[in-house]
Specification:
heterodimer; A: about 325 residues; alpha/beta; eight-stranded mixed beta sheet; four-stranded antiparallel beta sheet; 11 helices; about 30% helix; about 25% strand; globular; B: alpha/beta
């Protein structure tokens, strides 16, 4: 049984211009100690999935269908009070934008203490000790707990956020774009740290990123999202070596590999659709080079190709 | 100077003074500087794509701005087609500006939101006064829109930047850069704000245009994986200095400087069969206000020697146009 089993999740944002179907029928599973990479372009619904899992959607956003089973408990049905017990103790998140995710007015240590004391009944002193220990785990001098965020460099702030996410020993960590806004070397340091922690603590992880190479470096499974849907998912070896969906193929083709021979990169024509009025049928059809008549009319179902390799494309079904 | 050099830079420096508070100025007379660019030498050949790569704070953007004299250098010389542009008065510089252009990083902020696409694109033509009639300008604007694949041009000409997507905006930025048929183009992180699926299209467009106009191209980036597929030659910068320079193949496959090695090892590879991230060097780029003594990389270098903190290594040619500044290679 998978640790997290998301079934047909639908999250919509209700705006004055109509409802935005940010996540529209998404299913995936994450096992214990497993890392799933969620990839896609901006606006495809990656972050909305993260916010839905923790049920911290901004106003206007609502889960309108589907189940989120965490250890067979449906998080969608939980009361807010029960949900609070899940957050941080079972599922935590490393937010996007390391530079601004910490409160500049409080010491880093105090912010971690706050996270601990909100969820567990611990004395302040003890919590502070734990905070120092956490900072040590992520490679920051424990004495720096008394520093304010502005005294930290970008990489240290990102580490601080990871420490905070680990504060209550969660089973699942969601990392939302953990590498962006960091320099390559610092990004490599952070990704390496996350992989090591994951192995050491047997954490399940969801790595949300637009950068396929980050997924290839840190995850076991990958799910490719396009316009609110997962178009393909499977083991990373399968996804990178035998991608079946034209979007996955395009995305991989658009990605430069520093170790490969010099070549012109391929691009996907057009741009991502407006989710207020997504294209009919397969949402990728206006940009797809293999488009058929059926693609415009009927939405392709996600089918198993082999093992746990899922694809939603009429080319495969037909 | 050899014939085929488009831009040559010698010992270029840009030090920005650090502003101090009132109280501080009472107690200390010493002015401190951010040494953004601190003595660099390189040349860009005709029709070449030259890359400038490094982490943030390494001085790559400042270098780009200096080359176009958008900011004044502290010292050093910049030659454009054999002519030193540092000494030139504004009047003589203006016709040169037509021949050198820049494409900025952020397509959301580098286009004036109050101007239509027609005005944005025709302004360089008007400023330079190259075209005599309105009809001529109109025709040129339409032509360049077609060149950057915004078709039909009639549909874009009256729009405002906010009506375009990020990728389309950057195409306008490119059109503006190329509308005067420049001989030298600088692109400062032109795709870092764009989505992956759109990036490749923009980069290929730029390469095609550079080829078509036979222009020289300076590509400034932090993304070595992209640089690998864009550039002919590349220079790696660290804290205002060039630490290594050479053909892109040499730099990627046979890097000599420990920093270049670290930088290339840190680039994630989209290939699950490849070895995962190996050893990563520690720490982050130090402040350019008080850069480390000697070799600036010695504080993070895994193979630092006794001499490194004492003496600054010179950038030397180790053969076949491969330059490196490291005490290990002498």
């Amino acid at each position: 049984m998978a640790l997290l089993d998301v079934q047909d999740l639908k999250t919509h944002y209700f705006t004055l211009r109509g409802s935005v179907k940010a996540v529209d029928g998404v299913s995936f599973q994450v096992g214990k100690g497993e890392a799933l990479g969620l990839a896609g372009e901006s606006g495809c619904g990656k972050t909305t999935i993260a916010l839905s899992l923790l049920r911290i959607l901004p106003s206007g956003g609502k889960i309108v269908g589907g189940k989120i089973l965490f250890r067979e408990e449906n998080l969608v049905k939980l009361k807010e009070k029960q949900m609070r017990k899940m957050r941080w103790k079972r599922i935590s998140i490393v937010f996007q934008g390391a530079m601004n995710a910490l409160n500049p007015l409080f010491k880093v240590g105090d912010q971690i203490v706050e996270a601990i004391r909100t969820h567990e009944k611990v004395k302040k002193k003890e919590a502070w000790k734990r905070a120092e220990k956490l900072l040590e785990t992520v490679g920051i001098e424990p004495s720096r707990a008394t520093n304010y965020p502005h005294e930290f460099s970008g990489g240290m702030r990102q580490r601080g956020l990871i420490a905070m996410a680990l504060a209550c020993n969660p089973e699942l960590i969601i990392a939302d774009e953990p590498g962006t806004a960091l320099d390559v070397i610092v990004q490599a340091q952070v990704l390496k740290l996350m992989s090591e922690l994951k192995d050491k603590m047997n954490l399940a992880m969801i790595m949300i990123t637009h950068d396929l190479s980050i997924i290839s470096e840190t995850c076991e499974k990958a799910a490719i999202m396009y316009a609110g849907k997962i178009v393909e998912q499977g083991e990373i070896a399968t996804i990178f070596k035998e991608p079946l969906h034209p979007y996955t193929q395009g995305l991989i083709g658009a990605f430069p590999n520093i170790k490969a021979a010099k070549r012109r990169m391929t691009s996907i024509p057009g741009f991502p659709p407006d989710l207020l009025e997504p294209p009919t049928g397969c949402r990728f059809h206006p940009r797809c080079s293999h488009v058929m008549d059926i693609c415009k009319k009927e939405e392709p179902k996600s089918i198993i190709v082999s093992g746990n390799h899922y694809v939603a494309c009429h080319l495969i079904t037909a | 100077m050899s014939e085929n050099v488009a831009v040559k830079v010698t010992d270029l420096k840009k030090w920005f003074p650090v502003r101090k508070g009132f109280v501080e100025t009472l107690f200390s007379r010493k002015q401190s500087f951010v040494r953004a660019v601190d003595g660099i030498n390189f040349e860009i050949r005709m029709g070449e794509v030259f890359g400038l790569a490094g982490e943030s704070g390494s001085g790559k953007t400042t270098t780009g701005r200096l080359l176009l004299k958008l900011i004044e250098p502290t010292s050093g010389d910049i030659y454009f087609k054999g002519k030193n542009i540092i000494a030139l008065p504004g009047k003589e510089l203006k016709p040169l500006r037509r021949r050198m252009q820049i494409i900025f990083q952020d397509p959301y902020e580098s286009l004036n939101p109050r101007m239509t696409i027609r005005n944005i694109l025709s302004e360089p033509l008007r400023v330079q006064g190259t075209m005599s009639s309105e009809a001529e300008i109109e025709a040129r604007v339409k032509e360049i829109l077609e060149t950057v694949e915004l078709m039909p041009p009639e549909e874009f000409i009256l729009r405002y930047p906010h009506e375009l997507s990020g990728g389309q905006r950057q195409r306008i930025g490119i059109a503006r850069g190329f509308i005067l048929n420049p001989e030298f183009i600088i692109a400062d992180e032109p795709v870092s704000m764009l989505d992956v699926s759109i990036r490749a299209g923009i980069l290929n467009l730029m390469l095609n245009l550079v080829e078509k106009f036979n222009a020289s191209f300076l590509y400034i980036t932090h993304d070595l994986a992209l640089a690998r597929h864009m550039c002919d030659r590349i220079a790696i910068m660290y804290l205002g200095k060039i630490v290594e320079m050479g053909s892109i193949e040499k730099i990627v496959y046979e890097p000599l400087h420990p920093y270049t090695k670290a930088l290339i090892d840190a680039v994630p590879v989209p290939d699950p069969t490849a070895e995962r991230i190996k050893v990563v060097i520690k720490g982050e780029i130090p402040s350019p206000v008080n850069p480390p003594s000697g070799c600036r990389f010695h504080t993070r270098c895994p193979v630092a020697m006794e001499i490194c903190p004492k003496e600054e290594p010179a950038l030397i040619d180790v053969g076949k146009g491969h330059w490196v500044a490291c005490h290990l290679h002498k």
